[in-house]
Here is the input.
Amino acid sequence: MASAAPLFRATSVSETGTRPRPPRRLLGRFWRNRVAMTGLVIVAVIAVITVFAPLIAPHDPDKQFRGRILESPSQEFPLGTDHLGRDLLSRVAYGARPSIGMASLAILIIVSIAIVIGAWAGYVGGLVDDLAMRVVDVVLAFPGLVLTLAIVGILGPSLMTVIIGVTVVSWAGEARLVRGLVLEVRERGFVEAAVAIGASRRHIVLRHVIPNIISPIIVLASLEMGAIILSIAGLNFLGLGIQPPTAEWGAMLNQGRPFFQWAPELMLYPGIMITLTVLGLNLLGDGLRDVFDPRYSK
Here is the structure.
């Protein structure tokens, strides 16, 4: 998260109100930002592969072709076959679905929890803030990987268990960052004006506070999703997530590990997909940071 630190001082909204910058202006700045565009292209390609996997894959990803084990690339098998005679291209394409889907669901839950807890604690303050931050401190006191492994080990290996484990570990840090943004926004004049006219806390948080921190939250989510994908792939690599024969990039790395010396492509292809996905998300996040706050553009 160190690379994301500058974005938390960014202001996506006018200091005098909740009115955001014109979308056309932000869009034009986005198109001119090479980092953002590079990340967008990579993420778009991965998204196309994820959505259109059935059209890209020439075979059923779980179908085993007896006698075609560890074949080299050919017209029938463009990337070759694995140790069970399954088409690698089909498995790589279908492997994007659980990898991206699990990460998307996890980041949605994490950001939602972070906004609710961080925004309310930051604005209300007092006992609410103290209790919320003490819970955050307790969660952050545990090493993230150890806590995730403990949760998955207790609940048993499954797709939903991995999502729960990653969510429990990740929400606390994001809630603290959201709280910091809210502490800054609540001191602005338009929030004080809303308080002066008798607006309720709920109205102020929903209509004035959250709209003013949504831009850095978007950047935060795009940067955090890359880390979530790596965490999920790592858990699946350890066999704690999706179970065979379902194709998933992390699980494919584990399945290809015993054959690395004479068939490195079994690990190479899913490893490249994970790397490109995380790289694209990080570039997109860095580009969005510069777009929403040009003070940090290089």
